[in-house]
Amino acid sequence: MNFTLKTILYGVLVWLVPFLIAIPFYSPEGTLLIDEHFFKTAMILAGGGIGAILLIRLFSGISDQYIRKGWVIGVIWLLINWILDLGILLPLNGMNIPTYFGQIGLRYLMIPVMSIMAGYIAENTANKDHMWP
């Protein structure tokens, strides 16, 4: 499977896995059944965990341009998460866009931070002479 297709599929998984994990925490009426702060922490951990696993898998198949590919992965995953949230999550919870970005959407900026960081780590490992920008 090529890099772009794998990046897109993994980006969907980065969104889908926490979404599926969240379902049992809601009543059929859409009411959160546990403490909101615990839920948000669980979602951040689930997203971070699956993201880390999938970054490791993606970078294990990369042999060059690590930093550039870290940027590509981060931007693609960020856009996928925002698009899926806007198309699925917002209609489910009735949240408006400014509230969404204030409570959820800006947290996704950790995705490119982590993927770019992974690119720098891979680059530094592959080319010991490359230093921090």
Describe it.
The chain is built from five helices and no strands. It is elongated, with a radius of gyration of 16 Å. Helix 1 (3-22) packs antiparallel against helix 2 (36-60), helix 1 runs parallel beside helix 3 and helix 2 (36-60) runs parallel beside helix 5. With 133 residues, the chain is mainly alpha-helical.
In percent terms, what proportion of residues is strand?
under 5%
Mean pLDDT: 93
Helix content: over 70%
Please give the domain count: 1
User: SSE string, helix = H, strand = E?
Assistant: HHHHH
C-alpha termini separation:
31 Å
Largest sheet: none
Radius of gyration: 16 Å
Count of DSSP E strands? 0
Which class of secondary structure composition applies to the elements?
A: mainly alpha
Report the total helices.
Answer: 5
Q: Are there runs of 5+ residues with pLDDT below 50, and where? A: none
Principal-axis shape: elongated
Could you write a compact summary of the structure shown?
This protein is 73% helix and 0% strand. The protein has 133 residues and is mostly helical.
List the helices and strands and how they pair.
Layout lengths: L2 H20 L13 H25 L5 H28 L3 H7 L6 H17 L7
Helix pairs in contact: 1-2, 1-3, 2-5, 3-5
List keywords for this structure.
133 residues; mainly alpha; 73% helix; elongated
